[in-house]
Design brief:
The chain is α+β, with helices and mostly antiparallel strands. Helix content is 45%, strand content 22%. It starts with a helix and ends in a 5-residue tail after the last strand.
Length: 414
């Protein structure tokens, strides 16, 4: 909804930059840009490599991407960079207020897209508005006399109660259709008498879509579970294979860690298989990425992917017995970083396993599993092979700013 994306959130980010410059100077604004640049890549998420220097030209989609990560990048900036004239207690209060206003915003934004509302969820609008006005009023030339803010604070709750969900009376659907049926066809025309060309372009697309649906044509290549073979070897030749591989290829730190714990972790997994002996012939196929059938996500364990290491963070389904022994997130899931993807074939037993070597995350605080409604984690030196089928989905894990071993699972991927 442009009322929120291009309107109120735009104001919120702009006033945040003004506040940071007032309390800390330009160093805090630069730190904000630097933290945005360091957010880990994730499918469908835009990374702001140049910070917010072109914020006046941002689209609604770019602001929406910014919302998903801003609560993680804003924390601690005022505390670490406040001017000497600003007391430490004031810096802490301002920092906490900044984090809260973005946390309340994300919750409010998520609820605003629902079809039904509870009374407690409507109160989130008041909660965000109160924190927004208290924090930013002194940094607005108009003292926050903003039409969109007035409408959101004083009319939206009454309107929801009277007419239902916001999505039912916004123009978002029509703006999307305008983009697909007008903007894109116009840009693809030669700009001379474009109306007739635009109509024909839309008409052709509709015909093609209809024919594809009628004939059930599926042009997509069938996805396979394990992809991009890196090498094959017999388990007895493990040392020789990887010594040769390392001499010809550069491996990231995560891949080197995987090699260190490979044999120990694989032995633990094979011990769970009944009837195996020490004389089995075991062949290993090593892959760089796999497709998760349950979610359609691709998970990667590759030292170089677009010039950067890529080792996916995932949520993993735990059995009922295991979930009683560990702290788990909602739905009985735990989290881990994928270090290696392999297929194991035991020739004599005609057995085959698709496995991922994961390094586990644990909760930072057993009494407080969540912070900002996100699982609050630390990475631990525990490694296991798990079946690929037990992986639920790809998740984005963001390191907590200025902390050595604290991470959040980003639950704001709306």
């Amino acid at each position: 909804m442009h009322h929120l994306d291009l309107g109120l959130f735009n104001y919120q980010v702009t006033y945040t930059r003004v506040l940071l410059k007032e309390l800390c100077g330009q160093i805090a604004v630069d730190e904000l840009d630097n933290r945005l640049d360091k957010i880990p890549r994730f499918p469908g998420l835009k990374i702001f490599k140049n910070g917010l220097e072109n914020i006046k030209r941002f689209t609604a989609n770019e602001f929406r991407n910014m919302m998903k990560v801003f609560v993680f990048v804003i924390e601690g900036i005022v505390i670490n960079h406040h001017k000497s004239s600003i007391s430490t207690s004031r810096a802490k209060r301002s920092d906490e207020a900044l984090v809260n206003v973005y946390y309340y915003w994300n919750k409010m934004y998520l609820y605003s897209r629902r079809e039904y509302f509870k009374e407690s969820e409507l109160n989130l609008i008041k909660q965000w508005a109160k924190s927004f006005i208290k924090l930013f009023k002194e940094y607005s030339l108009s003292e926050l006399r903003l039409p969109k803010l007035h409408n959101w604070c004083y009319h939206i709750i009454k309107t929801i109660r009277e007419y239902g969900a916001i999505n039912g009376f916004t123009t978002e659907t029509y703006e999307f259709l305008h983009k697909e049926a007008v903007k894109i066809p116009y840009r693809s025309s030669n700009k001379r008498d474009p109306t007739d060309q635009m109509i024909k372009s839309v008409y052709r697309k509709k015909i093609i879509k209809y024919l594809l649906q009628r004939t059930n044509v599926n042009r997509r290549k069938q996805k396979t579970l394990m992809n991009s073979l890196l090498g094959t070897f017999n388990l007895q030749d493990f040392d020789a294979f990887f010594n040769n591989y390392r001499s010809n290829n550069s491996l990231a730190g995560e891949a080197l860690t995987a090699l260190e714990y490979f044999l120990e972790s694989l032995n633990e997994f094979l011990d769970l298989c009944e009837g195996l002996t020490d004389n089995e012939t075991i062949n290993i196929s090593w892959y760089s990425y796999a497709n998760i059938s349950s979610s359609g996500d691709y998970i990667r364990a590759k030292s170089l992917y677009y010039n950067e290491p890529s080792f996916s963070d995932v949520s993993i389904s735990m059995s009922e017995e295991e979930s009683e022994d560990y702290n788990t997130a909602e739905g009985g899931a735990c989290f881990g970083k994928v270090l290696m993807l392999i297929n194991v074939k035991i020739i004599e037993k005609d057995l085959s396993f698709d496995l991922a070597l994961v390094q586990w995350y644990d909760f930072c605080n057993s009494r407080q599993l969540y912070k900002y409604d996100c699982p609050w984690l630390k990475i631990i030196n525990t490694y296991n092979f798990v079946p690929i089928e037990s992986i639920i989905e790809l998740v984005q894990v963001v390191q907590r700013a200025e902390r050595q071993n604290e991470y959040f699972v980003n639950t704001f991927m709306f």
